[in-house]
Amino acid sequence: MPFSHHSHSGQFCAHAQDQLEEVVKVAIAKKMEVFAMTEHMPREQQDLYPEEIQAGYSPEILLDIFSKYYSEAWRLQKAYASTLKIFIGTEIDWIRPSSGAFIQNLLSTFSLQLFVGSVHHVHSIPIDYSAELFAEARRLSGGSNERLYEDYYDLQYEMLSALKPPVVAHFDLIRLKSDNPDPNVREMQGVWEKICRNLAFTANYGGLLELNSAALRKGLKEPYPNADISKEFLSLGGAFTISDDSHCIDQIGSHYRELLHFAERVGIKQITYLQEGSSTKDSRFPNTTTETATLSQLQHHPFFEQV
To answer: Does an H or E element contain 294, and which?
Structure first.
């Protein structure tokens, strides 16, 4: 039952560690039952990260890396089918409106079983990479966190509207590098209105909102999304899943006990996870469906004997 719908490996991600097969073996050793591989999508030259530039990457190289990931993921899915349910996907990056065609082409080229929808850039500046780059994006938004947050959630709405991702990743990632990473967003009227708009849209099309433990791992008080946002999505009838957003084997299932305590505190009763099946709500992924587990079922799973 414990699962993650968002993960990376050092084999195919320049800012991660460990081989993809190592990731699979550790997920099995930790008694995971469902594990989604979601390596980053290729990106345009202007959107390469510093470590990718330093390594001499280009968009063509990133596409080749993604192709190799795709082949390896299918091999691993078959090789470990008896011990771990593996889903093969990608984490998409919505950077600007032109991202839509780029992403749609990727999804039509590779036969994936899911994708997680993310926004990591505002004004084409990475907002989760460093405090300095966050400050530059804030400057371009007019100089305040509130304006930057509004721009972030407008970009997120573009992504949601264009792609309807099956899983919405780290919904409030914008707060990670802020000088106030645990803000009361309800007090930011314009920001809160945009958050509610995005949540209502996601609930309406049936997207899953991931409870992402990476925020806890990185020192934030609450996971992505925070309690106010989670409660609002819950009030709209929205469904949640859980992810570790792991970038190395040590992060697999990291902070999951705290994650479930958080879910219980905000009133979430059950967690949704992927399974194979034909009763899909998303025609793009005809063999991927969902099931649910109660918090109690998860809390008493053997996985938690090890964490």
So the answer is: strand 288-294
Q: What is the rounded distance in angstroms from the CA atom of residue 119 to the CA atom of residue 56?
A: 24
Query: For residues 138 and 96, is the Cβ–Cβ distance under 8 A?
Result: no
DSSP state of 240: E
Output the pTM of the full model: 0.96
Distance CA 78, CA 292 (A): 24
Give the Cα separation of 20 and 93 in Å (integer): 21
pLDDT confidence of residue 149: 98
Cα gap 30→293, rounded to integer Å: 18
113 and 167 Cβ atoms separated by less than 8 Å: no
* Span 9-65, pLDDT tens digits: 999 998 999 999 999 999 999 999 999 999 999 999 999 988 889 889 999 999 999
Say what the pLDDT of residue 150 is.
98
Letter string b/e over residues 166-199, b meaning 16 or more CB atoms within 10 A of that residue's CB:
bbbbbbbbbbbbbeebebebeebeebbebbbebb
Q: What span, in angstroms and rounded, lies between the C-alpha atoms of 82 and 185? A: 45
The whole-angstrom separation of Cα 27 and Cα 3 is: 9
DSSP lists the bridge partners of residue 34 as 3, 85
Q: What percent of the chain has pLDDT over 70?
A: 98
Q: Which residues contact 240 (CB under 8 A, 6 or more apart)?
A: 208, 209, 210, 211, 230, 233, 234, 263, 268, 271, 272
CA angle 35, 59, 175 (to 5 degrees): 55
Cβ atoms within 10 Å, residue 93: 22
Round the CA-based radius of gyration of the chain to a whole number and report it. 18
Phi, psi of 244 (to 5 degrees): -100, -15
What are the residues facing 243 on neighbouring strands?
212
Bridge partners, residue 291, by sequence: 273
